[in-house]
Amino acid sequence: xxxxxxxxxxxxxxxxxxxxxxxxxDDAVVITVDGDAVAVQPRPFRLGDEDPVGGECALALFIQxxxxxxxxxxRHLRRAFDGSVNGDRITQAWKQAVGRVAGFEDVELPDRWxxxxxxxxxxxxxxxxxxxxxxxxxREIGRDLEIGDRTRLYVARARSYERLLRGWxxxxx
Length: 173
Known about the structure:
Layout: E1 2-6, E2 9-13, E3 19-24, E4 28-33, E5 36-42, H1 55-68, H2 73-80, H3 92-104, H4 115-127, H5 131-141, H6 151-172
Antiparallel strand pairs: 1-2, 2-3, 3-4, 4-5
Helix pairs in contact: 1-3, 1-4, 4-5, 4-6, 5-6
């Protein structure tokens, strides 16, 4: 992944050559992929936002949550994505790239990582397509974080989604 930022335009060239362009306005980001309009999303990005194209923003919040909680974000992301295509890509440089995208998109950090903030983080991760990370957080590091009341709901949704995908993959073979 290569990132270029010039004024209000961020350009990302993904591993397979796909080019994303993100243009900032005062209150939104306009996203195009290979020249085709994909989405207009309000900004700043906040915990609990329903934003299917806010993956880097949600990951940046997870990284910050880990750092503020004394956990290693790179280690946990590698373990969460172990065996998947994403697992090998997670390095310190990748973490910095995610931070640059999040900075460009104006990610808003919570004052503290209490149960409500962690719940909202899990929701944002799930909505951005990281159901596997939501399950990992619950299983592996949930005891190190202050978990809120809605966490069980998001974990159940993530597990249902994972089972649905697994069944779909089996039926496609």
